[in-house]
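seq/struct pair 1
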Amino acid sequence: MADPWLALEFGADPAERIAQVGAAHEAFLAAGTAPDRVREVVRRSWERSALLDPETSAPVDLTDDALESYRAAHPLAPVLPLFRDLLGGIAQDGAHLMAVCDAYGRLLWVEGHPGVLRHAERMNFVPGARWDEGHAGTNAPGTALAVDHSVQIFATEHFVRPVQRWTCAAAPIHDPATGLLLGAVDITGGDHLATPQSLALVRATARAAEAYLAGGRPVDPDVVHLSALGRDEAELRVAGRRVRLGRRHSELLVLLLDHPQGRTGEQLGLDLYGDDRLHPVTLRAELSRLRRTLGPELLDSRPYRLRGTVRADFRTVSGLLDAGDVAGALRAYPGPLLPGSDAPGVARLRRLIDGQLRAAVLAAADPALLAAWTATPAGADDLTAWQALARALPPGAPRRPLALARARQLATEYDLPRATSLQRARN
């Protein structure tokens, strides 16, 4: 297939493909492995979704006033007229939906024909619901966020069975100034959406949204932006270009950014490998390849350090925390730093950033901040944060029963006494 992000090859029979992938899905649920006939992007998404119940429904995080306040303040709110202009005709033709989600997969807007919207409500495809892979399994907006790439998900490629009657295409949207992942735009409908045109449409809409957010401002060619939060491989944005780095180069760049004064080869080796017996030629080879990627004007040696202005999303979060802007830090935090990295220096920095952000949220005791933290990958299983959220919410608040239930669930999983957990949450 020329484009691995497309669901169907040219001339493929949709019904036959649905049956093939459906059989592969059942085999995966039974044995935990997927046959070769499943696309690589889908197979990996199924593996990430494997702990989910295949009959689950996406949870609804926000409703009513809380939802209105959240999406009114979201950076994509000003772009909504553009989404409606580019995708509104498709959404109103009676066969499709237009959806926009935030960086956590939380749906902000879902629009389309009332009849199609009613069908979508049955699977909780509604504003305020969480459609990231961790809560809804393989689906176009959730998977587009997970892999940071536009993607089409066709029928039985969805992990959760109630969603398998739908086909969708989605593309991620980034802040043009910082490269921060803001969310994704999606079109959802029937099998007829499995065409190159639907994927091209959401890609073009995402690029138009980024251009709109840029406001026509010229890109400073001397400023480099690194995105390393919530992704295993970092991405560089240089003068409008995007360069995806491999895992080792991602780690090296993060470590160099964390030490602007520079690092010796021995220090970098310890931070990267945790082994002072490492042969230095291995590290020099990695740095040589990184220099070819960055260009000689960006990477210095003796000591190794970065030249010029390089901005990074994890440093943005730390800066906002230093300034006391906890809400801003949470908005700028899509997930842990290079979560798949086991490099000692990266792991230490990851724990530091997550710990500082968590501590600031808990100290604020603000329900909105606690709700936002528990919606992140790092906060989803944070018992203390769920208990704090339950305490911070007033009696009768819509989210309080959910917070209490999640605290009880986590206390059970962590094998803590139930009475103790309930008492902490209620006090």
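seq/struct pair 2
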Amino acid sequence: MNDQAKSVDQRFDAAAPAELSSWNRQDTTWMLGLFGTAIGAGTLFLPINAGLGGFWPLVILALLAFPMTFYAHRGLTRFVLSGREGADITEVVEQHFGIKAGALITLLYFFAIFPILLIYSVGLTNTVASFLEHQLHIAPPPRALLSFVLILGLLAVVRCGEQAIVKAMSLMVYPFIVALLFLAVYLIPHWNGGILATASQVPAPSALLHTLWLAIPVMVFSFNHSPIISAFAVDQKRRYGANADERSSQILCRAHLLMVVMVLFFVFSCVLTLSPEQLAQAKDQNLSILSYLANHFSNPTIAFAAPLIAFVAISKSFLGHYIGASEGLKGLIVKSGKRPGAKTLDRIVAAFMLVICWAVATLNPSILGMIETIGGPVIAAILFLMPMYAIRKVPAMARYRGQASNVFVAAVGLVAISALVYKLAV
């Protein structure tokens, strides 16, 4: 009987690589879901933040974009995969580091992601209200009603389940990619050199390092999709078992290549169109690059399309970040000693999210940038440093030790955290 079981196992192991060689629709859905979580509202500010540093820092950041984001998210995926079957990130932390550390990381994980969800709630309400007023020339409904309807609509997608969220995000990615391509191509006839004027001015090494130091967090978090990584890894382990690491790495690689190519084309098209002075003006006015371009060209097409693109971008990111925020909140509730049923827990979390997101979107606070910055160091620690620490300390991740990418990821994480702390201090 044991020999028969062993023979079956051997046949199964031999067949597994052949299964992995076939890319399927679900892999594509996850690839686009990862893209959708990462590429959102932050992308619309990236040309301003990245372009202000000048030509050479932007080129260096462009070269670092793929390894910075791919290796970090692969490390976090491997960390979740190292846990037991079906365990999400909060449970894997508890499994590897103990109950107290698990509770602390779960708390930090929630408070790193949840403020960003609030930011998207406010941004979505502002975008739709502005679109109704300025493009459609319709008086928007009361802010409390508008924000409630919008957030309730997104939570209706959430109630359909995780797979529905990922599928909805993957569908929304297509018009977003087309819109980014359209804008980037539309700007080509308007390229005037822009940032190339600074190419002949090679900065001093100290100035270059200082600029890169402060710009790296912008690049890192413009491509961040850590909130959905836990759900992604759990699904890959359920589907592919021992081969989950290989297939998830393939999906991550393709997703990051798509992100980097699309976003950098958009960024370079913008900075070749606008001068450094105009980028600085956009930053002073606290405008996204789309809003500034619409005002700059006075083009009705861009003026009409920009809010729609922003709506899709924010909605995608809201759904992706909701997965991470709800996962963290569920972990906090369970670790508090209360263990409601799965459906009851889902309803409690959804009701909490609806009330808080609605209240914040209605109040429209002006301190959103500070909230996002405060969450930044925590996200960097979870995304960059925790998986690298686990590789050194956790036996289940010992096979990943000794790779040069580990040192690179840890170094980028320390740079990102130190730069964010510095920005808060000055």
